[in-house]
């Protein structure tokens, strides 16, 4: 595959205006699939959660999942959409190996939710309002695993395996109107918009929202038009981008790629494109079909969905606090500056931090541990921070530091024990014997030994060079295996050095 030419990003923006559009697919976390009773769960053995209906076998008749309807309505309401008095499913006809029925049961001209709006805020403080055309229900396709070739890509693969477990999982597809005026912020707009959708579905509880598991996926549409022109350019659609960083990178890459191609006199093909995380590039997929090519027609085996207005209003009353409002409230309550709070948000730790603070931990201490040591251990293990330890355990750990039972150094050892399954922080302290030594007796003994072994340091302290006490403190902390309060050790070192200075020097023996 030839490497595409890229134009400098700033130069691309001088010549062209980016026009964006996003289709975000949200997998709902219902217990069963959209139109059958098969389990909706991630990680099962290949092709174990299937039946004649989701496999499209003769005689398999669909039945709509009521919970999926409810979740779709709540999501539509949270996006500021109107909820249709009646909507219906349609067959979207196309052949692809991961679509067992050879059609997708979706919604076309009568979606469940439409005409929404979502305002997002960029890191600069700029606010961008994204108009939402529709949020419609459909079922997901299966999953292809490409075997052989390079890095598991379809290009160069020897063969592909199909797992239909995901086929039939309930989806809501959220489609924006064209987003114009993004300019240099276009990549960040993509990332921030998808992040906002993810926050909303998590707050609603309608999806697990784990992008690494494909619960939230984005198709990023990008086109360029020459400066001063009102004629839209041909768009490409980069499919199934499943991380916020990748959305940003994919939009930026397509702007640079398309600008270089257009400036050289080439043309853009309307097509889907694959995103390659390892190289940060896109590659051609298939020509992008228009709606007419899918030969939509009403699904004959499903009746229209007609939620009563009373039910819609009942569901509206269940909506949680909007994520943007919640963020502002929490930042003010915790007293974090913008950089501190953004670090928490970017690390996806807002929920666990709130729970830790609710369990009694001071806000700054909770932030320090979650974004520091816990995040470091999680990154090293390749897992999420919240999978290692619970907010209650972190709050208990911080309490032991606050009451003087642990130093930060000891607390890191306790944390490792908690993660290893050795019990609560208090139990790990007891079993490993990690509590700070609070009795001055053993500390004084260790200090006197250290002072005796470093007479030059003692002399410096006597001369008023207090910073020299650091060498003694270090020796004492080592002798106490870190189980001493460094501040208390320092006090005692200066006190003992003073006492030593006050003692008369031993008389020399007469020869």
Structure description:
The chain is of the alpha+beta class. It folds into 3 domains: 9-315, no CATH class; 323-432, no CATH class; 440-502, Arc Repressor Mutant, subunit A (Orthogonal Bundle), CATH 1.10.10.410. It is 39% helix and 18% strand. It has helices spanning 9-15, 66-78, 186-204, 244-263, 309-316, 323-334, 338-346, 350-358, 363-381, 391-402, 408-419, 425-432, 440-453, 455-462, 469-479, 486-502, and strands at residues 16-27, 82-83, 90-93, 103-106, 113-121, 127-139, 143-147, 159-163, 170-176, 216-226, 236-241, 271-276, 281-287, 297-298. The N and C termini lie far apart (93 Å). Residues 500-511 have low confidence and may be disordered.
Shape: elongated
Give the averaged pLDDT, no decimals. 88
Secondary structure: number of strands: 14
* Strand composition percent: 15-25%
Query: What is the SS-derived class?
Result: alpha+beta
Count of helical regions: 16
How many domains is the backbone divided into?
3
Give the strand line-up of the largest sheet: 2-5-6-9-1-10-11-12-13
Helix fraction bin? 25-40%
Query: Low-confidence segments, ≥5 residues, pLDDT <50?
Result: 500-511
């Amino acid at each position: 595959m030839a490497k595409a030419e890229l134009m400098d990003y700033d130069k691309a923006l001088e010549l062209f205006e980016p026009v964006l559009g996003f289709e975000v697919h949200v997998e709902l976390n219902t217990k069963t699939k959209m139109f059958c009773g098969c389990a909706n769960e991630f990680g099962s053995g290949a092709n174990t959660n299937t039946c004649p209906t989701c496999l499209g076998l003769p005689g398999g008749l669909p039945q709509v999942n009521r919970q999926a309807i409810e979740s779709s309505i709540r999501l539509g309401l949270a996006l500021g959409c109107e909820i249709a008095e009646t909507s219906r499913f349609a067959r979207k006809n196309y052949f692809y190996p991961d679509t067992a029925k050879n059609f997708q049961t979706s919604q076309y001209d009568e979606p469940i939710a439409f005409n929404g709006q979502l305002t997002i805020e960029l890191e600069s403080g700029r606010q961008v309002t994204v108009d939402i055309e529709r949020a419609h229900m459909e079922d997901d396709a299966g999953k292809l695993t490409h075997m052989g070739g390079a890095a598991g890509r379809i290009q160069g693969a020897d063969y592909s395996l199909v797992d239909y477990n995901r086929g039939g999982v309930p989806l809501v597809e959220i489609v924006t109107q064209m987003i114009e005026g993004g300019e240099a912020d276009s990549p960040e707009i993509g990332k921030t918009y998808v992040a906002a959708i993810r926050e909303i579905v998590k707050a609603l509880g309608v999806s697990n929202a784990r992008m690494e598991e494909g619960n939230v996926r984005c198709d990023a549409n990008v086109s360029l038009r020459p400066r001063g022109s009102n004629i839209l350019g041909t768009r490409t659609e980069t499919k199934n981008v499943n991380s916020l960083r990748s959305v940003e990178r994919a939009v930026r890459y397509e702007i640079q790629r398309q600008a270089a191609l257009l400036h050289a006199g080439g043309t853009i093909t309307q097509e889907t494109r694959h995103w390659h995380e390892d190289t940060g590039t896109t590659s051609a997929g298939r020509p992008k079909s228009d709606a007419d090519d899918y030969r939509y027609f009403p699904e004959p085996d499903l009746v229209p969905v007609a939620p009563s207005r009373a039910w819609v209003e009942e569901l509206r009353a269940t909506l949680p606090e909007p994520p943007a409002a919640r963020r502002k409230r929490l930042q003010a309550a915790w007293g974090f500056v913008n950089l501190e709070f953004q670090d928490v948000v970017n690390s996806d730790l807002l929920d666990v931090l709130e729970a830790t603070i609710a369990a009694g931990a001071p806000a700054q201490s909770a932030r320090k541990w979650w974004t520091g040591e816990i995040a470091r251990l999680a990154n090293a293990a390749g897992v999420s921070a919240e999978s290692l330890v619970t907010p209650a355990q972190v709050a208990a750990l911080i309490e032991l530091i606050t009451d003087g039972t642990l130093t930060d150094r000891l607390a890191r050892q306790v944390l490792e024990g908690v993660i290893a399954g050795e019990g609560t922080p208090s139990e790990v302290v007891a079993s490993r014997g990690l509590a700070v030594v609070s009795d001055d007796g053993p500390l004084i003994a260790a200090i006197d030994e250290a002072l005796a072994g470093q007479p030059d340091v003692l002399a410096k302290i006597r001369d008023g060079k207090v910073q020299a006490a650091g060498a003694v403190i270090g020796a004492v902390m080592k002798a106490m295996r870190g189980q001493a309060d460094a501040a208390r050790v320092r006090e005692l070192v200066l006190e003992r050095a003073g006492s030593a200075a006050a003692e008369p020097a031993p008389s020399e023996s007469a020869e």
